[in-house]
Amino acid sequence: MQINTVSTNKPAIKMRKPLNGVRIVRSIASYFLLTFVAVIMIVPFLWSISTALKGQNEAIFSFPPKFIPANITLENFVTVWNSLPIPLYLWNSTVLAFWGVLLPLLFCSLAAFPLARMNFKGKNIVFLIILSTMMIPGEVTMIPIYLILDKLKLIGSYSGVILPGAVSAFGIFLLRQAFVGIPKDIDESAIIDGASPRQVWWYILIPMVRPMLATLAILSFIGAWNNFLWPLLILQDPKTYPLTVGLYDLKGTFVTNTRLVSAGAIIALLPIMIVFVAFQNFFIKGAYSSAVKG
Amino acid sequence: MRKMKFISILLASLCLLFVAACSNAGGSKKNVELKFWTISLSPTFDDYINGLVDQFEAENEGVTVIWEDIPFDTVEQRVLTAAASNQLADVLNLNTDYLKKLAAVGAVADLTEKAADVKSDFFEGVWEAGNLGDKTYALPWYLSTGGMLYNKELLKKAGFDHPPATDEEAWEMSEVLYEKLGVYGNTPSNIHLYLPQNGIPLVSEDLKSAAINTPEAVAVFKEFKERFDKGLIPRELLLGQAKANEWYAQEKIAWWGTGPQLFRQVNDLSPEVYKKSDAAPSIVGSSGFNHIAIMNIAVSAKSKAPKEALAFAKFVTNAESQLAFSKIVAILPSVKEAAADEYFTQGENSDDPSEKGRFYAAAQLERAKDMFAPVENISEINKAVNDEFHRVLLENKDPQKAIEDAEARINELLDTE
Amino acid sequence: MYKARHAWMFLAPAGVLLATFSLIPALAALVLSFTNYNVFQPVEWVGLDNFIKAFHDKKFWSALGNTFYYWILVTPALVVLPVFIAILVNQKLMGIKLYRLVYYFPALVSVVVTAILWNWMFASDGIFNYIISLININPINWLTSKEFVMVSLALVTVWQGLGYYMLFYLAGLQSVPTDLYEAAELDGAGIWQKHFFITFPMLRPVIFFITVMSTMSAFKEFTLMLAMTEGGPIGASTTVVYLVFEKAFKQLDMGYASAISFLLFIIILILTLINKKALDRTY
Known about the structure:
The structure holds 3 protein chains of 3 kinds.
Chain A: H1 21-52, H2 75-83, H3 86-117, H4 123-132, H5 138-151, H6 158-166, H7 169-180, H8 184-192, H9 197-208, H10 210-225, H11 229-234, H12 243-247, H13 258-279
Chain B: H1 2-27, E1 32-39, H2 46-59, E2 63-70, H3 75-84, E3 91-95, H4 96-104, H5 124-127, E4 131-132, E5 135-136, E6 138-144, E7 148-151, H6 152-157, H7 167-181, H8 191-197, H9 215-229, H10 235-238, H11 244-249, E8 255-257, H12 264-269, H13 271-275, E9 277-280, E10 290-291, E11 293-299, H14 306-316, H15 319-328, H16 336-339, H17 353-363, E12 368-369, H18 378-395, H19 399-415
Parallel strand pairs in B: 1-2, 1-3, 10-12
Antiparallel strand pairs in B: 3-11, 4-5, 6-11, 7-8, 7-9
Helix pairs in contact in B: 9-19, 18-19
Chain C: H1 4-32, H2 49-56, H3 58-89, H4 96-108, H5 111-121, H6 127-134, H7 149-174, H8 178-186, H9 191-202, H10 204-220, H11 223-228, H12 240-250, H13 254-279
């Protein structure tokens, strides 16, 4: 019995599809559709980008709006870089994001396993309780969580920011669904072969849900990277501020330099885009063939 | 023998050191720590606030002030989470309506007696901003009266060579502007201020019942409905969804009524339009008074150092400190002595609308007072009046019924106190 | 096959964290709904008073109605549409990763920026009114009339959610073994048949997930309303959580806010149970 756990292999028998006219037409149609949808998605951002590229003397709000700056300039980005300790903030955000991705991936995938696979007394209740934690709005749990962190003496530390979000019911739910999609006979064959639950989890199930893990990683990263309110409430030393909190300084009192704020927002967006594209390597069409043959 | 001498010298010097250390420790005062929170003043005013802190620490040995600035849209969350874990700041900068809420739940200290000595330093109409009922809970800090930034070019195109000086004139001009150029003039969004400014208070003097139900109020609502139907009042500005500064920068409105410290926002959004602009005094309502937006300084009721906290609060709001603040940005001081400084009489002929605006605003200080009744639920009362007003304009509700409903709601809100 | 003790071992680490930072605070909030807690004054038990107040509160019912309306507009769209987008970007075309990023963009940007951009597009002289003027329709008060405000907000949410939920469907599609498709093709199945008999059934766990998640998100939404319309005009876009936020933070009525949250929780729980019965299936 073969268990295929490696991702980028071409399956043993590859049916090469002939490159004929039908395929070309299909591709062109696809690109057309793709681009049409892309335009709808991206148009609103053109304004943000163009604002960041406009110089001090050019109007941001004119009517009708001008998308293309008269003089494209990078001075806003330079000013933001120079007036705030951007590298420090980037580092802080990275630390928070690193733990904000690692811990959820680990704990949620551990917890999702029994919920998807095992039959134990109280399983449904546990699952419902976990889901229930997502049904209470954060506005009313904010103060209790703060008080708990205070009792644990975690106010002011990164743990206070990371731990409340380290396990999310959302992540557990997501991975549970991923595990549910895998046929149970795979587990059974492995166990018959003598695998322990931990080995089944690590060597068989985890590799098979890589796309979903990548999804959770991306979402956790974005959540941790864009986190503003909690770091603001918990952290007290400005040197520990992540990018979101640090960039708030660009909103001056009474007068805001909108160009700088736009430039800052774009600087903050870049790492997310990089992470997103990087994790795309886990999304590859045709990478999996069913793992049980014969 | 020599060994003995050596040891005794060593012992003696040790004793001397010990005594010296002890007396030093006994001599220094206990260190008091004050936490001071401001709203959205960093980083623009870092130097100023740090300067205040340094000066106070120098004049008050043993006191350390820790300053933290809070972004204005997270003030409530910060205050509540800190208060829940007993870590609320000792000295707090608060805006008027939140102050009244906090005063009603006993979060801030009653300063009626403790601050009586400085009361006369402040403008009368301004002092009330820190009141709940007839008790005082905060000292007034910096403030902003109104002002007007207008677009000279737009007005000229419509045939006007000066900005409006009265409400009537403003509406007449608005009609012409709309017909000729399709732009707006008066853009009301604060009916809860307009009414008191024009002699129709929302709450009675004894603070026990609604005072809004008068024929004059109904007439005002009717008038505005007519103007709305003529197309003179843009929905987005009425409902607060679009920002007046952006519309002004896009030349969709001919004038913008706001405090002069905000004029420079137009420069950020559209330098060309800023160059075409000039400042004028704001239009005063028929009551002779205009609303004034005030920031306050309060002391936490649970502060562990109430005396020092109060001293710091008085220090931050005294004439000298406020004058220095007003020189950095076009806000105004709430202390009479500071406002009398000749600094505010300059700028009358300035080219920069911000400076000219400050001159006009300072000149109007005597005719400014806080239009918010000193009751706990003032922000909900204001909202109720606005809601009824919107219903008249947007849903064709009968003005008489709307005023009556507003009265009922205000009475309901006053009852719960 | 598996023992119960295995189950508890795997659940333990997550369980501890979840209990500390999600469960206990949630229980605390629930308990607070029976009190008049306002942070500053001593807590007093008030029993069911807050709930009775909610039943009589016009604003509560109006907010509930607004929230249900919003949910109906948003969730079906976000369960169905992203499937097609995911299928579209699941192809092995050059530059497909870039397209995926672009589609995901709306989900990345903060609420504040989204609000600025869409407020501008919905303006009375904005892009949308311009487009409909080309087909001779009168300008619509997108955000300033109670007829259209929820629809407009729903539109923004769907725009943001397309890319967001696309990602889940994409991951789900990736886990469908390709030889299933190849076998079907050998049997002569066309595109629609392939998707109907293979893709959708295999996506069922993801569909369940998205239905539940998007329902929860729809019921908890308020930051969009706060940023774009401040709950207006005249409360037409005030959702339940918006009300909770106002009561808790602006009006210092934490007890009442918790009670409203409790009622909301019950509603979401019921809907989730219904969903589970209908869509959930473990092998």
